[in-house]
Write a structure and sequence with these properties.
four-stranded antiparallel beta sheet, about 25% strand, elongated
């Protein structure tokens, strides 16, 4: 795929925030003549990311290239939005559960409890968001520090 990828349409985006600047270039290729047959394959996608992270006294730059295949025939901008949307889910759910709620560090291994704790974590996240919180770590800290806040979030009287 790398050897025969010829960009037919390209779009670039620039995102700033959270102490980093990230430029993404999404290119699509619909020339599949050099690609082994794959059921439903319509488009090849290449995403080139250049990230600059800003630390106290230095800048750290990283570059990464990822390839995707899809059965969609959308333009480069729409595919770029779809790919970013996927990572939005990753950042809003999986990252929060792993980092803020410590799911990966959990020592719970008994099958019924694993599912119950997943549901409890999801319930807490949904209640935080419904209550208007955008920072889940802050919501969790505030609920842990104040019974009134916890009761308000969980709609208890």
């Amino acid at each position: 795929m790398k050897a025969h990828f010829t960009a037919q349409q390209t779009v670039s985006t620039l995102d700033k925030g959270h102490g980093r600047i990230e430029k993404r270039t999404v290119s699509i290729c619909r020339d599949l003549s050099h690609i082994r047959a794959f059921p439903g394959l319509k488009t090849l996608i290449r995403v080139e990311s250049e990230r600059t992270e800003i630390y106290a006294d230095m800048l750290v730059e990283t570059k990464e290239t990822r390839y995707y295949i899809t059965s969609l025939e959308e333009d480069a901008m729409r595919l770029a939005q779809r790919i970013r949307g996927y990572w939005g889910v990753e950042n809003k759910v999986h990252y929060v559960r792993d980092v803020t709620q410590g799911e990966d560090a959990s020592r719970i291994r008994t099958p019924p409890l694993i599912g119950l704790f997943v549901q409890a974590r999801n319930l807490a996240l949904n209640l935080y968001r419904t209550d208007g919180w955008t920072n889940m770590a802050q919501a969790q800290r505030r609920c842990g520090q104040s019974l009134d806040t916890l009761m308000k979030v969980f709609r208890m009287k």
